[in-house]
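REQUEST FORM: STRUCTURE PREDICTION
Request ID: SP-0412
Submitted by: Lab K.M.
Chain count: 1
Length (residues): 242
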Amino acid sequence: MDMRDLVQGRIIRRYQRFLADVELPDGSVITAHTTNTGAMTTCWEPGDAVLLSHHDDPARKLKHTWLACKRGGTWVGVETGMPNRVVADAARRDALPGLPGLVDVLTEQKYGSENSRIDVLATDAQGRRVYIEVKNTTLKIGSHACFPDAVTERGRKHLRELRGMVAQGHRAAIAFFVHRGDVDAFDVAREVDPAYAEELEHATAAGVEVLPLAVKLGMRKQRNGLFMLRWELPGLLPWRRR
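STATUS: Completed
RESULT:
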């Protein structure tokens, strides 16, 4: 999946969870929207290169959205809606690592007993429903990509919902979308949220499938001077306990 006509700049600061000030190449400073409400630890530092999408919608107060940041030569994806789009697109093309043969792919479907919405819902070759929760995973600890980067009661709720789907005879999976290429394994961030780590163990024991998706995030400059980002899913990373 590609996004084109992106603007490059350098981040100055992030504040109030949803806002980031970015200096553009001409020296002007704009405020961009960030969809990522997490801590974003290890994702950025002031002065890092960033890529922004631009929106002409007159109803939008902020015309730019922060998509990615360059850390140590590696692009890190910080926009939280893109992982769901990439996973759904891969499932429709039967190119989702770890879950081959999916059909009838839907997104944002209501389900469960705790008033939730599943990111991706599909059907496998045996006719079973497959519930897929997608988590943008950007925290880096050593050589591992880790989730979560902040305490997440919402994340624990999603794991409980997935367990409930398995108990009803369906399949369920949690896809950790490892949105950076400078890691070689995945693990849960126990030191950040021990309760989430415990809930993940309960979920896997109950039959919830864990898919640490390796993500290849590539950038190139277009002929018009703007930039393109491309997302690819080459396979799965190992879940290796630290």
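NOTES: The chain has a mean pLDDT of 97.
Reviewed by: T.R.
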